[in-house]
Write a structure and sequence with these properties.
Helix content: 10-25%
Largest sheet: 8 strands, antiparallel
Shape: globular
Strand content: 35-45%
CATH superfamily: Electron Transport, Fmn-binding Protein, Chain A
Number of helices: 4
Distance between the termini: 23 Å
Number of strands: 8
CATH architecture: Roll
CATH class: Mainly Beta
Number of domains: 1
CATH topology: Pnp Oxidase, Chain A
Radius of gyration: 17 Å
């Protein structure tokens, strides 16, 4: 271990964590089904209390099948800007928004908060969106020390 490089990390201030959650566009949402994990790169929106995600809603969605079996999801944002790095890890239950709640996310709001929706080999007219809220249980922010 004498030749392995190490760097110390420190907890981020709450304001720094909040800024990362608000300003970063995308991270990785991790879901689980029994012993199988599934990580999905995804855009998010943070309103100061909850994280929101939009997923394609169809009968063949692997993501949605994992959402249904996940008790506690995790979402990670991270960046490496040598010589510094940082990460924010959020955990909580996912809840599909009701139709009434979904109405607060009209097309203009979705475009503004989430950017373009990535579509894979399916007609745009067939794409339905489902909105999910992560009810935040824990948030941890870490960063390397500044030289």
């Amino acid at each position: 271990m004498d030749h392995i490089q190490f760097v110390y990390t420190f907890g981020m201030e709450e304001s720094e964590v909040e800024e990362r959650l608000r300003s970063e566009a995308a991270g990785v949402l991790s879901l689980a089904d029994d012993g199988t994990a599934y990580g999905v790169p995804i855009h998010h929106y943070y309103d100061g209390e909850s994280l929101y995600f939009r997923l394609g809603d169809d009968d063949h969605s692997k993501k949605l099948s994992f959402v249904e079996t996940t008790t506690e999801a995790s979402f990670v944002l991270f960046g490496v800007e040598e010589p510094e790095s940082w990460s924010v890890l959020v955990t909580g239950a996912l809840r599909k928004l009701s139709e009434a709640e979904r109405e607060s996310f009209d097309a203009a709001t979705i475009n503004d908060r989430f950017g373009p929706f990535r579509v894979f080999d399916e007609p745009i007219d067939d794409v339905e969106l489902a909105m999910f809220e992560m009810e935040i249980e824990s948030v941890t922010g870490r960063r390397t020390s500044r030289p």
